[in-house]
Amino acid sequence: MNKPILCAGRLYCDLVFADAPRLPTLGTEVFAPNLSLCAGGGAFITGATLASMGHSVWQFSMLPAAPFDTLVLADMKEHHVVATACKPAATGVDPQITVAVGLQSDRAFLTRADGPALPDPTTIRFSDFAHLHIGELKTLQEMPALLGMAKSAGLTVSLDCSWQDNYDKSAADLIAAVDVFLPNEYEVAALAAVGVPETCAPLTVIKSGVNGARARARTDDAWTQSVAAPVKVVDATGAGDAFNAGFLSCWLDRAPIEQCLSKGNACGAAAVQALGGAGGFKTTGERVALPDT
Known about the structure:
- The protein is of the alpha/beta class.
- The chain has 8 helices and 13 strands.
- The chain has one domain (5-11, 41-94, 115-282): UDP-N-acetylmuramoyl-L-alanine:D-glutamate ligase (3-Layer(aba) Sandwich), CATH 3.40.1190.
- 27% of the residues lie in helices and 21% in strands.
- The strands form 2 sheets. A 9-stranded mixed beta sheet has the order 5-4-1-8-9-10-11-12-13, with helices on both faces.
- The longest helix has 15 residues, at 257-271.
């Protein structure tokens, strides 16, 4: 694949508190032994992981407001994610920040998302790219024209779900129009509760954390399952986004689904062994190599 991959979605500065003994509760204080500040958001973490495996990746996002834009741009450069298509936040927009609190095997987020997620899509020449990955369903709901523009230019499209408190059945039409949909167990259950079929996309890939992942084409009768190898969890932030990159790296090369799932699990495992969503992918190496099957 010679053309770059375009990753679109909200771009944050992540403040990641790792190894917390518990989540904060009202009236109490929790002290975490580790903290990292880094670029975040599903689209970026997937893109940084793809870049670590040798893919050319562009980010299409609004930058967090100053002073966090400088930190995020430096992190994007370090991860070899091209920021040319990103635009600065408008005057008066709050910084886009996510506070992540990581426990032993999972994490919780508190996020401020202000202003639009994406710049004007007419500033992008979609025909310059091979594939569009959208980091969260909400971004596609905010800008559904993005899908048509990408498809008209011949791109394949993948979509992560990302958590919402207010999923709507109308999301089914957007999900059905992408090529690959990549929710986790919590998200697919919440979508099903409002009437979105579990396999309405042409290919649905459900991430199950320590239990691995499973995939099923809309026309298939059964799921293909892949078990994850156990690893020591340092920070679970971005594990699902890193999984997306591993899966898509193989899927774009038309590899068998079993191999796509294995690569996704390997990238997810590498992600949880370092602080920050993309902390395990600053260089290419054995940590993201496809495991023996």
